[in-house]
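Holo prediction. Input below; ligand is zinc ion.
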Amino acid sequence: MVQCAVWNCNSSNNGKDCQLSFFRFPQDKVLQRAWKSFCRREDNFNPATSFICLLHFKSEDIENRMQFEMGKSRELTKKEKINHV
Ligand SMILES: [Zn+2]
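Structure of the complex:
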């Protein structure tokens, strides 16, 4: 089961929210830290096994990330920031 790492977010792929997309934490340490602080969690969870759900991204962020993951873009641009809650 995939569960969103963001504090107070109940999204998971188990049950009625199964249509929701989840994004793996980036490999990049700086981005990883940014994502982690975005989650506002007290516990020191492992980013390598964590996900953040679609709800915390803006559509242009997702588009860029998709292209990156599909190999169309070699690097993530500055849009790869989470600034939407
Ligand atoms: Zn979430």
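The radius of gyration is 13 Å. That is the main takeaway for now.
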